[in-house]
Design goal:
With 203 residues, the protein is an alpha+beta fold. Helices cover 31% and strands 25% of the residues.
């Protein structure tokens, strides 16, 4: 004979656990319909990936394992209204080229207030989508600008899993930006725990 009360309790606990797990899954947050855990082969050929690895091979030489992840940039987002470019990271030896890191970027040159407004819109979307996280807001000066006139304002979501989402805006000193041909604006990055740990291990 089935114990109805016991069955209902198990059912409730199961559904609650599934709900919490779903809320913590960063794969639910997409950038240009791409997600953490996707195969990069859905978007680029193996040859295209290998060619792009070559152009970014020295980007992370300050880390202990600079080649553990390889980064790919995609600039030709003509149909996108959300981002001007994206980047993602995979492991070169992974034949499936699973995405562990995903970032969308949009220029807001001399439009810092507009960038902050969009950052806040995205932050609100994240809060609606997820349930278990620690939210940290921080403002800091950019170390590449010795004058101290360039800064970044960001919101960081840290999940119990160790995964992280960072939404931020850069504002460069205008003289420095023009001199170097840099752009400034919005960056939305999704980091798996493995990439977050990798970034923390510096030489």
């Amino acid at each position: 004979m089935i114990n109805i009360k016991g069955f209902l309790l198990i059912l409730i606990l199961t559904l609650s656990f599934q709900s919490i797990s779903k809320g913590d899954d960063i794969r639910d947050f997409q950038i240009e319909e791409m997600s953490i855990g996707d195969s990069a082969l859905k978007y680029l050929s193996k040859k295209q990936l290998l060619d792009k690895f070559e152009s970014t091979k020295n980007n992370y030489n300050y880390l202990l394992e600079p080649s553990k992840f390889r980064e790919v940039y995609i600039f030709d987002l003509n149909k996108s209204i959300n981002y001007d470019k994206i980047s993602f990271m995979v492991k070169e030896e992974d034949l499936n080229y699973t995405i562990y890191f995903l970032r969308g970027m949009k220029d807001y040159n001399n439009q810092f207030d507009k960038c902050i407004n969009q950052r806040n819109v995205i932050s609100n979307e994240i809060e609606k989508l997820f349930t278990n996280y620690k939210k940290i807001e921080s403002n800091f000066k950019n170390r590449l600008d010795k004058t101290g006139k360039s800064f970044r304002k960001q919101i960081v979501f840290i999940f119990d899993s160790g995964d992280v989402i960072i939404v931020g805006c850069n504002d460069w000193d205008e003289k420095l930006r023009k001199k170097n041909g840099w752009s400034e604006g919005l960056s939305v990055a999704i980091l798996s725990k493995e990439v977050e740990d990798w970034f923390s291990r510096k030489k």
